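USER:
I wish I could look at a protein chain and see how it folds. I am handing you a single protein, as its sequence and its fold in token form. As I understand it, each token names a local backbone shape. I hope you can help me see how the letters and the tokens relate. The protein I mean follows directly.
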Amino acid sequence: MLPSPLKNRLIADLPRRERDNLMPFAKRLPLAFGDTLCMAGEPHRRVYFPLSGFISLVVSVPGHPPMEMGLIGSEGALGASLALGVDQAPLQAVVQGIGQALSFAVRPFQRLLRESPALQASLRRYLYVTQRQLAQTAACTRFHAVEQRLARWLLMSDDRAGGESIHLTHQFLADMLGVRRSAVTIAAGGLQDRGLIHYRRGEIRVLDRTGLEAASCACYAEVRREYAEQFP
């Protein structure tokens, strides 16, 4: 069954009339694992409102693997900076969880934005939450242990995966967290030994969310609180 457009929180929160004005210009597109949807510093080709699956925002430094700074799932949108009149992508966006998205070509979407005050306001609030998420991730990377950061990342991914298994290798996780693969192996092993996750052949399933939240740093709860304040 195809997910409803109302699965995306930003779309669902729009007044009915403004939402109906958007739908004729929307296309359903698959989110395929590993697809790059935009590159940092380049113009957005399309705007994406995920209905399922999730997108990773990564930063690249020459000579190093890309490092993840944030995630976008059905709570948000890729291309929200268009609400500020900026059509360049600030970060590279790569699909990490397969799913579907409502997608818009940039030119029609810019016109629709001008005609929809509610959409402008929603995207600006979402950009504030994203800014807080990026700042929290930077602080988390600097101050918190690998196991705490891994627990946080798994919780954020699980929120957007809808309880489905997360398909990731230790090397991919290491690149996203900016640590050695051996550090992820030790951290994931510790979480699995305590019965919080199950990991096998690149597939991770969260078994105990309450326990995983206790293992995570406070950054996870902080980002969720910020979102809840902006989108009560």
Summary: The first helix runs from residue 9 to 12.
